[in-house]
Amino acid sequence: MRRWNGWGEESVFQKVNPIAFEYLQAHVGLAKTSHSLTFDELIALVPSSRLTQHELLACCDMTCDAKDRALHAVGQSLPDWIGLRMGLIERFPDAVAYPKSAQEIRTLLDLASEHDIRLIPYGGGTSVVGHLTVPDSLQPVVTVDMRRMNQLLHFDPMEQLATFEAGISGPEIEDCLQARGYTLGHYPQSFEYSTLGGWVATRSAGQYSLGYGRMDSLFVGGRLETPAGSFVLKPIPASAAGPDLRQTVLGSEGRLGIITECTVKVSRLPKQERVHAAFFKDAETALTAVRELAQADLHMTMIRLSLAAETETTLALASHQKVLSFVKLGLSLWGVKDQKCLLLYGVAGSTDAVSQGLLSARRIIKQQGGIFVGQKFGEEWKKARFQSPYLRNTLWEAGYAIDTLETSVIWSKVKTTIAAIEDALKNAARLQQEQVHVFTHVSHVYAVGSSIYTTYVFRLADTADATLARWQTLKSAASQAIVEQGGTISHQHGVGLDHRPYLEVEKGELWLQMLRAVAKTVDPKGLMNPGKLME
Amino acid sequence: MRRWNGWGEESVFQKVNPIAFEYLQAHVGLAKTSHSLTFDELIALVPSSRLTQHELLACCDMTCDAKDRALHAVGQSLPDWIGLRMGLIERFPDAVAYPKSAQEIRTLLDLASEHDIRLIPYGGGTSVVGHLTVPDSLQPVVTVDMRRMNQLLHFDPMEQLATFEAGISGPEIEDCLQARGYTLGHYPQSFEYSTLGGWVATRSAGQYSLGYGRMDSLFVGGRLETPAGSFVLKPIPASAAGPDLRQTVLGSEGRLGIITECTVKVSRLPKQERVHAAFFKDAETALTAVRELAQADLHMTMIRLSLAAETETTLALASHQKVLSFVKLGLSLWGVKDQKCLLLYGVAGSTDAVSQGLLSARRIIKQQGGIFVGQKFGEEWKKARFQSPYLRNTLWEAGYAIDTLETSVIWSKVKTTIAAIEDALKNAARLQQEQVHVFTHVSHVYAVGSSIYTTYVFRLADTADATLARWQTLKSAASQAIVEQGGTISHQHGVGLDHRPYLEVEKGELWLQMLRAVAKTVDPKGLMNPGKLME
């Protein structure tokens, strides 16, 4: 069963070894075990619904049950966790709808227009930026759970296109395609729960996007039900017939309507797939190698470079400490010491293409002094690729909060942006007389630049409000640093509520005006996910 | 000097051999040599300007000179040619502006807003769909020639990005980049004259877009001056921060403002570049091979498959008939006869990558029974790649009009769409008791489908009006067929005036409403290129 107040399945508990806790204490300070709300305590917070007895309830199996409303009130952002674990949830939806078809959604939208009801689309509930927060609205709010719409509608191997209902989850998509010899190849960290419609609405990127493409390019067509009517995007390979408004549905975050159907590009399952690893003596040589790999066009599926602090943290958290001390000893003999950076790189395709790709990659790595260490680290990463969010549960219970920040910048700004983000976090913590442990990797590389992914760990405060304030100070310092460096406020998480304040600096006032004009056209009453993405 | 009433340089005349004329006569009928207007006769058509003495004239070296106005009145569409050659130009701009900087353009836009002046951005003047047509407006119209803004502003080999002023032409871009060891790799048929800003405004595709990408992906950032202010798109590798409005500037066709600056992805010049050729016995096997090549991801730069009628026409028009008769004889011994289709395919990259790519391609071609015929056809194509538009001059003078149509569809619709377009043209000609010679190639292939490019030749009528009516009947029959098949009304030419009537069937009413809302936001008075793309 899925955990109601944290990440993942209740049956899975990610242990942390004592050495790792010592490491954390040394970097962040001693933490106190935090008490978490019980589910009954959460339910007690749910107020009465404004929709009891409403005629809308006949539509989409809608319910005002407190349990359903509690389970759909938040996502997975840090403020969401503080809400769930410490009882700081301000509002709950008045009802939850469970549509089974686009037709039902059409009816729901028409009724919502008529009765002035606000709607929040809900996919896997994995947003980390506040997409699911219930707005402070005089009008009732219904959260629309899309998970019952999870069917494959059309698949044509010849044209390598598949059409799914939007509520289908990552594993359901891959089960369906892999049985036919195909894959979508889209693996965001939230893969196990997040949905295709959610990926489109937030312009999702996955661990293998270097090989298969981001949602921006995988999403070829589909259907968006808007309050003003249906918006159908036909699958067309490429077009010069005016602006591409498909790219406006992508990233619309529920503001334009509800995505009901998506046609996506699929690929033949690769014959082979390998993830190899190498160590570099410092960030300078490692980043040069990564840029050259990105620009060499080698059919790679992934590149992930952990900078020194992340490499050290990864090694400290690993369970097989004995093996690792040998690795460290070996590396130090090659001059790879404290500042070492771990590179994971993946190649997939035919057996020939994989050997060729790995060979070319290794040549570039060697030129920059990288030490090849084989498949072991890559295999470990593949096994554990969806497990790291489980650490949030374990650390929270030990009194630590863990959160991540991400952006992308052109190559000339990668190093300075990493430093700016890390410094901003450390300075913001220092001003609060706290410590923060910060580490970064670059991944999702492009010919012209790279994404930057920073993780930070800090101690929970004694109260919900104080913890939230501590997070807000850290988050806002880092976000400010990102936009000042010319980075995007989000490379893969979306905007939601948490990134909204930084959007105008990134995009400019005209961008917001244009987008508001589009939203006004399809949703004149402002029913759709109010307040997310833009005010 | 550039030809004022046709394509290309005045010094270049593309001869057509007598066999080719016989071939045309057999397929289209005997034509009468057509009289063309002289330049003086054209100038005599230019009315007085509504801007003489206007204070606007102080801006951007603006001129009301009849010669400048005549030379900026039309583009290269068939109606444009009828206008220039037969004197059917209804309106001329009141003035032509020649800005030298984004600042001058800002001033021009502010003055235009103040005085309610309509503006038409003009790049290389190569539009084939009526982008440059002067609207029937009570307000004065100024055409804005961007060719003085042709400088490289920034180049960083590390991040493989170059920023140019928007008025720079194809050859100027390549001179600039190739001297530095780089290339943009964008070669539309209009390469010699068309401009970067024009490519972005019309979502251009080039002959090598399979390898280097369409403008959609090459254009990373830039600057659009709109009546409401400056819209700056920062170069960011990838972003999940809301909808991608860069994709709304792409394809904006002058309706949102004037593009003044473009940052584009560039690539290292490939070590090697090869174009090889093969023949197939019929469309069925050839199209299967092309789809498999497109889906195999082989680092190819181009794939161009001429179907039977185009292959026959190409061979008839070629000058070296003796060599060809040997080729035909050889092919017929392999069973490749009347329905034969010529495939050209290009690979570029390192010497290794090219050998590897050619080898893999040849394997796929062989599996479908394709007969490899070496480099000769590819070399001929490379030499003549920008010469075929010159044929328009030669044929027009002999009494024939030649025009092209293009779309793209998913793989399952390629064959039926080709047939529908060709049949529509033939039936429309038959109803006028005329013949039309029609032939098609597929190129710009994608994993999920392909573009379709159809050329048609018909006889000029005795008068301008009758010729225009003949073209309109053919064009509209074929365009109708395209949208009925679910194709886009343009894969690479844009919408302009000629494709506007078909846009609503393709995109739907909501698409148009959203786009109008965006245009209204940045250009509330409707000053920018009125009537193009949408009413």
From TrEMBL, chains A, B:
Substrate binds at R392. GO terms for biological process: lipid biosynthetic process. FAD binds at P121, Y122, G123, G124, G125, T126, S127, E253, G254, R255, L256, G257, I258, I259. Gene3D superfamilies: 3.30.300.330, 3.30.465.10, 3.30.70.3450, Uridine Diphospho-n-acetylenolpyruvylglucosamine Reductase, domain 2 (3.30.43.10), Vanillyl-alcohol Oxidase, Chain A, domain 4 (1.10.45.10). Keywords: FAD, Flavoprotein, Oxidoreductase. The active site is at Y453. It holds the Pfam family FAD_binding_4. Residues 89-269 form the FAD-binding PCMH-type domain. Its cofactor is FAD. Belongs to the FAD-binding oxidoreductase/transferase type 4 family. PANTHER family: ALKYLDIHYDROXYACETONEPHOSPHATE SYNTHASE, PEROXISOMAL. This is FAD-binding PCMH-type domain-containing protein. It comes from Sulfoacidibacillus ferrooxidans. The lineage of its organism: Bacteria, Bacillati, Bacillota, Bacilli, Bacillales.
